[in-house]
Structure formats: C-alpha cells, structure tokens
Amino acid sequence: MLFRLGVLMARWRWLVIAAWAVAFLVSAIFAPRVLSELKAGFGRADTESQRASALLREKLAQREAVVALVFSHPRLKAQDTEYQQAVEQTLAPLSRVPPDVPGVERVITLYNSANPNLASDDGRTSYALVVMSVGIDEAMDMYPDLRRRLQTPEGFQMWATGGIAIFSNLNTAAEEDLRRSEALSFPLVLVALALVFGTLVATALPIAMAILTVVITMALVLLLTQFTEVSVFVLNIASFLGIGIAVDYTLLVVNRFREELPLHGRSEAIGVTMSTAGRAILFSGLTTMVGLTGLFFIPLTFFHSLGIGGLTVVLISVLAVMTLVPAVLGVLGPRVNSLRILPASSRPMSGWRRVAHGVMRHPILVAVPVIVFLLLLGAPFLGVKVGSGWASVLPPDAEARQGWDVAERELGPGELSSMAIVAQAPGGILKPETVGALYDFTHRLAQDPRVKRVESIFTLDPSITREQYQQMYAAPPSLLTPQMQAALRSMLADDVTLVRVIPRIPPLSDEARAFVKEIRDQGIGPGVSVMVTGATADIDDTVDIMYRNFPLAILYIVVTTYLVLLVLFRSVILPLKAVIMNALSILASYGALVYIFQQGHFENLLAFRTQGFTENTVPIVMFCILFGLSMDYEVFLLSRIKELYDESGDNTASVALGLERTGRIITSAALILVLVAGAFATSDVVVVKALGVGMAIAILLDATLVRALLVPALMRIMGKWNWWAPRWVQRLLPGQRMGV
User: Fold this and answer.
1) What φ, ψ does residue 157 adopt, rounded to 5°?
2) Is 0.90 topped by the overall pTM?
3) Percent of the chain with pLDDT strictly greater than 70
C-alpha cells in the first residue's frame, strides 16, 4: 500500500505540492496571531484548593485577579507626605471613578486602608493591590495596558508582581525563548544536514519541511484556542518537535531515496522508499503520538496543551513526509544530488562497518559497560526531590520576579502569598459554639511560630476574649462597631467565613507544605469543615494530582507502545527489549537532570541558579515526549535489520549490516534533535531550559550508546530468540516488509 502511495504522490506531484502550498500560505496568515490566544498557568482541576477558591468567589466575592505594585525609596518612608503623594499620583489612573483601565475594581493602599502591614518595618518599601473585577484570563489580556499606564515615580523603584504579572512576564519570556531557539537551531541544523547530504538541494528539503510543519501547526493551534484553553508552552514544544521530527523524517526518506535511485526508475525508487523508510516513519510517528497522548492522563490544561500541540505537529510531519516529500522527490529525481557543497565520500559507511563488526565480535564486553554506565548516570535520580517554582521560573531580570524577591525580602516571605482557610458550618458561623471553636482555632494559629499574623473576624482586637466574641456576634450586627461590620461584610457569608494566614515561611517550602497538611488534618471542631487554598495549597494539590495520575500514563504508554511494536516486528521479545532500553535511557537522563538542576552543577555554564529541587512538570513531560522519540531510533534500526533478516534469515549478519547501513543516518537524525533541544537550553525560563538539556542528553545517549551499541549487542547475544513469538500471535499479525 505504501509503495502505491509513493508512486501515486510522484504521479500527482504538482497537485500535491499545490495543495500543501495553499495550506502553508493560509497558515502563514493566521499563525502569527497564536501567541495572543495562549494562556499562562497550569489550568484548573478538581482539588480542595480550587473548591475553596470557588467558594470564596461565590460566597464572599473574593477576587482572584490581583496585581501587586511594590514601591521602594532609598531615603523616604511610606509615612512621609512626599512618599504618599508619589504613590497616589502613580495610582491615579486606576483610582479614578471609572478607572482609566477597564476591569479595575479598586486599589488598596497603605493610605486608604490604614493597614500598616502594607509597609516594611523600615518604612522604605510598601505595596498596593490592584483588584480586578474580571477573571484571570480577562485580567491577563488587560494587564499590558494597565502596566503601561503606571509610571515609576521619580527617585523610586516600582515593580508589578503577583500572579497576573508573573504569567504575563512568562508569556513574554516564552516568546523571546522561542525566537532565540529557532534563530540558533536553524543554522546549526543546516550545517548538520550539509554534512550528512553534501548537496544543497538535499539539505534544503528537510529545512523546508520543518518550516512548513511549524507554520501549519501554529495555525492549527490557533484554531484549537477557539474551542479550548491552550498553554503558552505549546509554542516551545511545537517548535522543538516541528523542527526536529520534520527534519529527521525527511532526512530518512531522502537518504533512502538516494540509495534506491541508482537501482530503480524514479517512481519505483519513491515507491520502494515509502514501503521501507515510509513504513518505519509511520510506526515511529505512531509511537511518538502514543507517548504524547499520555499527557492527557494529567487533568490540567498545561499537559493537555502540550499533548495537543505535540500530536498536531507529529501528525503534520508524518502527513508531509508521506505525501509532500515523495511529490517533491518526484519533481527532483536525480537532481536531489545537485549543487554539491562537500566532496562525496567514497567510503561513507566504513566507520560504522567497523563499529558493527566490533559489536558482533564482543557483544558482552559492549553491553555490560554500557548498562553499568547508564545505571550510574541515572543514580542521582534516587535522590530526586520534585518541587515548584513561582516567580523563580522567570529570568532574573524579569520585573515580576524582581518585585516578588523585594517583597519577600523587605515585607516577609508570606506577605504576597497568604494562606486562605475557608471554614464552613451549615448551622451558621455566628452560633456561639462555632464562634468559640473558630476563636480557639485562629488564636492557636496566631501563636504558631511559622505565622506572622492571622486576619479573621475572631482576631480583630487582641483584647477581646472568647466569651466576648460569642456575646457580640450573638447580638444584631447593627450594634457592632463599624470596624467589625466591615470585617463581617468582607469575611463572612452566613455559613462560610475566611481566615487569612500570613506565614513567616516561604510559600513553596517543605515547611509551608507541612503546615497546610497540619491545618487540614487537625480541622476546627464538630460541625465545622475546613478547606485551605492559596499558593502553597494550590500548587501542592496540583502536584499531588499530577503524580497520582502519572503511573497510569506510564502504564498506558508502555503497554500501547509494546502492542504497536508487536504488530511491526512480529516478535514478543523485541518490543520488550525496546521498552527496557527506553527506560534505561530515560533513567540516565533523569539522573543527569537531578545532577545538574537539583544539585546545581554547571550553573555558570547554563546560566541558572538551582532551587534545590527538580521542577515537578519536567519528569512527566520528558517521559511522555522521550518515550516516543527514543522509540523512533529503535524503529529505524530494527526495521532495517528486520528487512535484512527476512531476506537472509541470518541474525548476526542482519544485525551487523543493519547497524552499518543505519548507524550514520540514525546518529545524524539524533544530532538534529540534540541541536534543536540544545537550543532550548539557552532559555531564560528554567523549566524550558531543564527540558531542553534533559531531552538533549536523553536523545544523545539513546542514539549512540543505546541504539548503536547496546541494542545490537543484545540482539547478537539473544540470536534467533529476537524474532520469537507464539504461533497464535503470528497468526494474528499480517506479514510485512519494512526498512529504513
């Protein structure tokens, strides 16, 4: 079937090329708009923290979208008239009625709230809160205009920070990273392809396929944003996979076509290429897509977006290589070897011939050291500690990160990241016994050394006793002081009340996570339920749901990949070995990741500062992407070996000759992906940098030590058992011819 497809694409080549050209031109119009439609953050899941936030919105009209503005002056203090006038003048565009920026509900400052906690102890640093009346997504859209209207007062430093500002800065950094990585990777890929092919025409074709794939993918992602939320990080993954996979797949097809061209006519050479290399690419794309669909097991927008973007770019790459590339080759024919830029090598496979025969002669001496090395490289992963960054994921010069750091240093670690405790009592919060229980609970919290202060309707005045609170709240609200009435309006709604805890400890520290767990476990009292939200609780709940579902994703990917390879190779042994080899290379890359980013090695070289943990999304994303990508090289190698084995029946000769013929092209294809992934190592966003470094290491190890040495050595050791399958399995699977 694939032979006929190749011949058909060559016959109808101008029609196929025209169809793809139209698709590219239309996509080029819409693709640049995609960034404005992408979302920052991870998305929402059904967690306690999210349920508590929803209750606060519904019952107490608490706003999620808040921008914090941090002011600092080297000499003036917040109580000084000059300081106050400067701050109020800066905030005037947002304080007018109506405000100059739509969506601003109110601005809370030291001066209109009389809250001394909005200034540092030395008085030189203060902050204001811009509360938005809209949701997170709308606030993100409005933020750039809001920030432009705020001018830093003369002599002051001013930073916008908090969730909205951090996400906005993250969008900007992701866009800059994408431009930088593409600008860096394309010239490197061009040089690598020139070294592989030696001719300008053959070199240009994979680059053209990469550009086409990325542009069409971006346009399709824009279309998807009209129906679902898509994370901004989809840009990075689409670029990485679009450049890497499109180039790799095109490289394999062009290379095989050049091999077949001296032996067949143009159309037949294309048909043979598609029935061999094309089949391998088809199954390689399928295994890559299987890995990416594992991301859908994690119920968060971030992972779903990466899965959608990855699937889209792989699908477009496979379609282009299976249709457009053979059509272009039908036009070029022998001219694919035109415009030589490097002299032709008379012995292009001699080095790999020596490697192949060396592995065949001493398979155990090759396999054992490689396995030991990979296990040693993976050993640091035994000490992995997953964690989450907040503003620290941004580059050091990002405004939101600088403002957050200043606020933590001058105002306290928890001032801008309080814990919100939602207490709910179906019988009513102001019943005397409930008031007593909540009084005890809040005062117990206030005495905890990890707590800076507690804000609630039970801690308004330290001189008021438990019994007095019970008596006051039993009386009609109109008899209470104005301060208490205001507190009840903002923090009480019948059966729900808010207790805000401002901790002394950093929000994403182990100590803060343990504190949240203690609050949840101890509860408040009979008839009163408690939920905790805020940065610490929300991120902890998110990580919990991620890693609760990750084992299911692993099981699905491994089992489905095994079944796909079982169909491809008609062996129950080869797919099992492939899965184990994948696990080894991924484990080694995990260990390298911990060694570098958690333990802090090569900080200066890679321009980052370790946070003492491995960012929690990285192991999941790496596994789902790498398991499929690593399987590509297994499929490329074993497909050629299987093709030769079907012809000769000689396992040893087939393995040696298969490695000899594919070793150079596999390592070249891997080098392309390493260069593209390595370009992302220049990212200013630490998560993207870690993914780039981790994937570059994994692909490099996989294509050299694992596929070029370990896999052939194990196949030599296992002999005819490589191809064993029970007869009932063989009866279920159709015969097939394949190769690269």
Assistant:
1) -115, 140
2) no
3) 97
